[in-house]
């Protein structure tokens, strides 16, 4: 098996953690990395999310900056899509920020 076709356990763990984020909740890049068991891998998590295959059904839009800001610019197609998807799930943005105290997902609390 070539190196390019070998499964990457870090990538798989990241995508499993991403898939677990429930609708209406968000996580930061650092939190996503921690949920995947990758420690302080926030930048790597962001890098991987930017390389999701076209048409992926993983909820990439639920991952935002730790301060509650979507990291994609508001005027970009992806930035508009992210904000629209969050609003459709009931996540409100005030001055282009998500209230992390209200919408941050804590897996220890369970899914509502």
UniProtKB/TrEMBL annotation:
The keyword Iron-sulfur does not apply. It comes from the Bacteria. Residues 77-88 have a biased composition (Basic and acidic residues). Residues 68-88 are annotated as: Disordered. One of its GO terms (molecular function) is methyltransferase activity. Keywords: DNA damage, Methyltransferase, Transferase. The keyword DNA damage applies. Pfam families: DNA_binding_1. GO terms for biological process: DNA repair; methylation. Residues 11-91 form the Methylated-DNA-[protein]-cysteine S-methyltransferase DNA binding domain. Transmembrane segments: none annotated. This is Methylated-DNA-protein-cysteine methyltransferase-like protein. It comes from Pseudomonas oryzihabitans.
């Amino acid at each position: 098996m070539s190196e390019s076709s070998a499964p990457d356990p870090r990538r798989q763990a990241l995508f499993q953690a991403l898939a677990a984020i429930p609708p209406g909740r968000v996580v930061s890049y650092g939190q996503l990395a921690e949920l995947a068991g990758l420690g302080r891998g926030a930048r790597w998590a962001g890098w991987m999310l930017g390389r999701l295959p076209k048409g992926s059904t993983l909820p990439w839009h639920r991952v935002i900056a730790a301060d509650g800001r979507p990291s994609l610019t508001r005027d970009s197609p992806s930035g508009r899509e992210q904000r629209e998807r969050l609003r459709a799930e009931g996540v409100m943005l005030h001055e282009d920020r998500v209230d992390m105290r209200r919408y941050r997902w804590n897996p220890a609390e369970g899914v509502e």
